[in-house]
Amino acid sequence: MIAHTLSGRAHAPTVVLANSMGATWEMWDANLEELEEHFRVVRFDTRGHGRSPVPPGPYTIDDLTDDIVDLLDELRLERAHFVGLSLGGMTGLRLAARKPSRVDRLVVLCTGARLDPLSQWTDRADLVRAKGTAAVAESVVRRWFTPSWLAEHPQVRKECEEMVASTPADGYAACCEIIATTDLTGDLPDVTAPTLAIAGGDDLATPPGQLERIAASVANGKLLVVPDAAHLASAERPDVVTRAVVAHLQEDDG
Ligand SMILES: O=C(O)CC1=CCC(=O)O1
């Protein structure tokens, strides 16, 4: 079972938050207080990351969605809202497409159905297996935030680099290889949960066009492009992102 933590309002609707590669559940710290006012919040560490087990690879995107289903079962939740960023967003899309009864409303941030060129992910997996996650920490975090924001937040930069560098190399590499072998393009029309796709306007890792395609291809999608935000838009612009997430999850389907 993946490591998880619960907080927020015990009897409110539940929202599950899924991380980007190289991050632990602390990546949602800037969003947590506001989410906890409205929801029961479940955060977890993706397999191979943080406090979760590092089973031997290879992993697939369906292993990640099965981990979520096991977590929902453990918490006795028939369905929940799901919010995922980057690899977490890919997990959310696959889960919503393959297990629609388990996902209420969906938010995907800074992600894509397929992250080309796929060879970059096998290259990164090879590098991390050879030299450890510390070898990629600086370059990964440089893409998480805009240059001006990073310059103004040296302590966050340091903490984020430490978070990436403390991710087990085997777990991180196996997750790179998930992305190298995943194309969710064909899953998008099967995503029926009302979906908000949020892009960082300055995100070079998963540019706004990726989120535009998701919003246009799922059955019921909307797009929000957040200005002055890179890949970890939820941490760089929590003011805009948390408000949009809460509004989407509280929207009435009727
Ligand atoms: O690490 C990156 O470069 C960006 C990224 C892609 C998938 C993910 O989770 O992070």
UniProtKB/TrEMBL annotation:
User: Would you say which domain of life the source belongs to?
Assistant: Bacteria
Record's Gene Ontology CC terms? membrane
Gene Ontology biological process terms, A to Z: beta-ketoadipate pathway
Question: PANTHER family in the record, alphabetically?
Answer: AB HYDROLASE SUPERFAMILY PROTEIN YCLE (PTHR43798:SF31), MONOACYLGLYCEROL LIPASE (PTHR43798)
A Pfam family annotated for this UniProt entry:
Abhydrolase_1
> Do you know which Gene3D superfamilies this protein is assigned to?
alpha/beta hydrolase
Q: Where is the AB hydrolase-1 domain?
A: 13-238
Q: What GO terms are given for molecular function? A: 3-oxoadipate enol-lactonase activity
Q: Where is the signal peptide?
A: none
Q: Which PROSITE patterns match?
A: FIMBRIAL_USHER
Which keywords does this Swiss-Prot/TrEMBL entry list? Hydrolase
Q: What is this protein called?
A: 3-oxoadipate enol-lactonase
